[in-house]
């Protein structure tokens, strides 16, 4: 039997009676001669039979369980729903450099990149202390001062922020099949994005590029809240916005403190997106990609799609 294990808790905190696909049973009893009732206290999903197809009733062995009383998925965005260049350097600074030159900078593109990177790392170090989020405009102002030796006006700050965001977004890579996966997840869960970001427009813009705008019920960002994950304020804001009981939320993301440990400390369950096993994270709480999340949560019964097409639009 698939069973999750966290320190002090070993199941999703679901209060409903156990339901089995081949009959009903009280917790701890068998369902139609199958294995004991599901440890996650949820609907039983038949195991796949390799000869009869995914989700076939001919599946052998104990079946995974469905987290059917969990009603909300809180999803990190960058590194979870899209891939991106974390270095802030590999995508180049062509637009930023052109903007800086238009306002009087005379150095090379590398000098422009160095000034913006130095400003970013300084602001990021400050945010690491209290988790206060900074804006693209704050970053732009500091970079301007470093490059031009003067305070920029509002127009210059806005232009610098927009050009640097355009450069950075070239490092964002959409994941094929993600929109279809979100559509499947949305059949059983309310989807809320909870993301650290310095720009209010970047998440909606990338969702539109993905074709997933209408699949997301809520977007909560660190920029709007004022604090980044793992600060309590952003988790509270997400729960309030989604009108969600934390006991019915599964948080999914790729960062240990922001997306796994932090949500659990606030009463939510969590699934870590990670390419390899990690100490402290049961394999029943890890996926290599969000494309694998429907299978981990096992919310469909039976599956009507072969394994080879999961997550493919």
TrEMBL record:
A Pfam family assignment: Hydrolase
UniProt keyword list: Hydrolase, Magnesium
One of the protein's GO biological processes: small molecule metabolic process
Keyword Magnesium included in the entry's annotation: yes
Cofactor(s) for this UniProt protein: Mg(2+)
Example GO molecular function: hydrolase activity
Protein name, as recorded: HAD family hydrolase
């Amino acid at each position: 039997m698939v069973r999750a294990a966290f320190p002090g808790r070993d199941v999703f905190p679901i209060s409903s009676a156990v339901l089995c696909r081949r009959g009903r049973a009280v917790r701890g009893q068998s369902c139609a001669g199958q294995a004991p009732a599901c440890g996650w206290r949820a609907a039983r999903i038949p195991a796949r039979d390799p000869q009869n197809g995914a989700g076939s009733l001919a599946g052998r062995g104990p079946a995974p369980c469905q987290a059917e009383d969990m009603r909300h998925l809180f999803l990190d965005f960058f590194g979870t729903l899209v891939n991106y260049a974390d270095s802030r350097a590999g995508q180049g600074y062509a637009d930023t450099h052109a903007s800086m030159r238009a306002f009087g900078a005379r150095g090379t593109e590398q000098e422009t990149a160095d000034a913006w990177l130095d400003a970013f790392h300084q602001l990021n170090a400050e945010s690491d202390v209290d988790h206060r989020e900074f804006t693209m405009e704050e970053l732009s102002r500091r970079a301007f001062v470093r490059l031009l030796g003067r305070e920029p006006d509002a127009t210059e700050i806005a232009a610098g922020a927009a050009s640097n965001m355009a450069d950075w977004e070239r490092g964002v890579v959409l994941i094929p099949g993600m929109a279809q996966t979100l559509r499947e997840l949305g059949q059983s869960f309310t989807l809320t994005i909870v993301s650290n970001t310095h720009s209010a427009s970047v998440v909606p813009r990338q969702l539109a590029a993905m074709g997933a705008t209408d699949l997301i019920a809520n977007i909560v960002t660190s920029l709007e809240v004022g604090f980044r994950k793992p600060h309590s304020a952003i988790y509270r804001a997400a729960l309030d916005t989604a009108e969600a009981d934390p006991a019915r939320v599964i948080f999914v993301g790729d960062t240990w403190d922001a997306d796994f440990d932090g949500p659990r400390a606030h009463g939510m369950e969590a699934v870590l997106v990670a390419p390899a096993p990690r100490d402290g994270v049961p394999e029943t709480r890890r996926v290599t990609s969000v494309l694998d999340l429907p299978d981990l949560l096992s919310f469909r019964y039976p599956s009507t799609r072969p394994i080879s097409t999961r997550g493919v639009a």
